[in-house]
């Protein structure tokens, strides 16, 4: 397996992989085509975007990491907004291999930290913990619905 930056020519393949993963359990997302295109464009086309693909030995795209690189006082940080592995490759070590390859790639790029967010009630939570991620005890992720006044 290897990783490399995703090309715009691979957009349709990446989008289909994203839909296949996130429209099933445990996520059950219901993306409309226009919203998904806008979301993917926002993830891929910013000046600080870092979008990487995981490829198997046949050069088939089997995973993606979509996120942003930010400068921080402790050094550059990669924030993973979306990380996914093809459903037919899950629970076979592909995700763990991807994270190891990603770590090596980021280290070579001078990135000091990788951050992400996930729900505690899904298998991804334990997966990330098993692969070296930890919860920050003094941090909280907060949300507020924008309402009409």
CATH fold-type name:
Aminopeptidase
Tell me the name of the CATH class: Alpha Beta
Low-confidence stretches: none
Instruction: Report the count of strand segments.
Output: 5
Oligomer: single chain
Mean pLDDT: 94
Describe the structure.
By secondary structure, the chain is α+β, with helices and mostly antiparallel strands. Helix content is 32%, strand content 25%. The chain is built from 4 helices and 5 strands. Strand 2 and strand 3 (61-70) form a beta hairpin. The longest helix is centred in the C-terminal third of the chain and has 15 residues, at 94-108. The relative contact order is 0.15. GO terms for molecular function: aminoglycoside 6'-N-acetyltransferase activity. This is Aminoglycoside 6'-N-acetyltransferase I. It comes from Shouchella xiaoxiensis. Its EC number is 2.3.1.82.
Layout of SSEs?
Elements (H helix, E strand, L loop, with lengths): L1 E4 L5 H12 L10 H12 L4 E7 L5 E10 L5 E10 L8 H15 L2 E6 L6 H8 L19
Parallel strand pairs: 4-5
Antiparallel strand pairs: 1-2, 2-3, 3-4
Structure summarized in a few sentences:
Residues 1-149 form the N-acetyltransferase domain. The chain has 149 residues and is an alpha+beta fold.
